[in-house]
């Protein structure tokens, strides 16, 4: 399995405080050491960094830390390989162009099967279940809509396509086109929104502390989405199984509650570290 | 205008000696300072680094230098903006997935017009002539071949599509799918192949010296393609205008000689530094 990290904001924000805790789970506080990736939207463009080394010690991750890139939308992933070798082509997040926008996707879970697209417009480059599922989703979206549809049409279609994919297994994912971010929970996904009044937070993985008052302005809104909470003194919302949350400008704009029993319990409910 | 750098090898090779000279042209020895990008194929995957800062001083370029990534195929680009703002989405090289492979493209030149694809299967994300031309080429290829064709079919199609695009202006480009690399020359493009017996080389831009005997094995073959030569004591082949050269495993495998008068002389023949 793997872990996911997403950030959606209404102001360009530096993700380093969260990423520094998250990357420790790739070899220090947990075992998700089979490569990592992080994608930063910048305007319509994306900076994407990948390595097949463990994020906690990767020089590419050190570079990301030092550069303090500010972004409205970030998706990161630390990998514990289940399907596919440890190499760059199997490293999340995956990216495709759809209607002239970058679409960025990362997955946590394991899919035993993936539906065949009616017309494969996108093909996986590596050999993970995750990239195949993303290509299925992108192909289906492009077949349904020759031009970019409205946000509500997109959300509705993504829900329908997800319901097809989730029949094959566990499918926690974060997806963004740089305008909004969608999180879907099969087993484990948590989020919180930081806004005024700001306080302090202490990281779980190394006790690093931040006072957001030193960094944020009054109107700032920053949502963090992650497999398991990254801080010990903030209130994280655990997503329901089968649920979707849609974020834009740092806030939840829509939600679909989960239905019990819809998803497959693969034994990863609750934080179980690698043995 | 911009400058291009490509490398195609039969053994994973570190491009830092060439890149360190090349990146000086982005702000020190020349003015191509409007961002840079470099893509390294690694297996079927690609590591791609971009910055909207000048390559000579970019911390992302420093990171690339320090990491000494070895690759069979590398494409890099330093930008002097002609069309489109200085931002990440307008930064070469551009990348698209075609038949389950990464296709990486960088362009030097200026196109006044680009043909409309019969069916736009790929759309530009930014607003450069370069990305539009690449999307036209990728759309045309995907329309002609529902599955990946043979190498010779591909080369023939790329030549035909290039002949359409070049009607619109100057179109020097380097393109790779990780298996081979194609260079097309409208005005300026040079290459050389390093193989045994290896010698020394001195960079033009900062007099840095390397002895390839210290780095290469007997059977190694490394081709470097670049807008203007990077070393002063090696014999570079200047490509003919309108010509194509196809490289694989570090060597020229096919060539189409240019025809005089086929390309547009936009005044950049011969190395003219920015004023």
From TrEMBL, chains A, B:
Top-level enzyme category: transferase
EC number: 2.4.2.-
InterPro entries: EgtC-like, GATase_2_dom, Ntn_hydrolases_N
The organism's place on the tree of life at top rank: Bacteria
Segments forming domain Glutamine amidotransferase type-2: 2-275
PANTHER family: GLUTAMINE AMIDOTRANSFERASE, GLUTAMINE AMIDOTRANSFERASE YAFJ-RELATED
Record protein name field: Class II glutamine amidotransferase
Organism: Pasteurella dagmatis ATCC 43325
Record lineage: Bacteria, Pseudomonadati, Pseudomonadota, Gammaproteobacteria, Pasteurellales
């Amino acid at each position: 399995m793997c872990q996911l990290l997403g950030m959606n904001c209404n102001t360009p924000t530096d993700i380093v405080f969260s990423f520094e805790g998250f990357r420790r789970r790739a070899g220090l506080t947990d075992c998700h050491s089979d490569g990592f990736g992080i994608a930063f939207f910048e305007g319509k463009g994306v900076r994407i960094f990948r390595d097949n080394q463990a994020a906690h010690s990767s020089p590419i991750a050190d570079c990301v830390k030092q550069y303090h890139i500010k972004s409205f939308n970030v998706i990161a992933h630390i990998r514990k390989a289940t399907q596919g070798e440890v190499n760059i082509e199997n490293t999340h997040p995956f990216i495709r162009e759809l209607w002239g926008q970058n679409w960025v996707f990362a997955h946590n879970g394991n899919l035993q099967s993936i539906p065949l697209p009616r017309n494969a417009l996108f093909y996986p480059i590596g050999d993970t279940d995750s990239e195949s599922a993303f290509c299925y989703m992108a192909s289906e979206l492009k077949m349904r809509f020759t031009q970019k549809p409205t946000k509500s049409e997109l959300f509705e279609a993504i829900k329908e396509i997800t319901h097809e994919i989730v029949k094959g297994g566990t499918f926690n994912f974060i997806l963004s086109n740089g305008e909004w971010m969608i999180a879907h929970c099969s087993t484990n996904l948590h989020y919180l929104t930081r806004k005024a009044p700001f306080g302090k937070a202490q990281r779980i993985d190394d006790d690093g502390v931040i006072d957001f008052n030193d960094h944020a302005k009054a109107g700032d809104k920053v949502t963090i989405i992650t497999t398991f909470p990254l801080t010990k003194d903030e209130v994280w919302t655990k997503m329901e199984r089968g649920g979707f949350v849609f974020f834009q400008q740092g806030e939840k704009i829509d939600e679909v509650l989960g239905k019990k029993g819809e998803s497959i319990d693969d034994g990863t409910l609750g934080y179980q570290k690698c043995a």
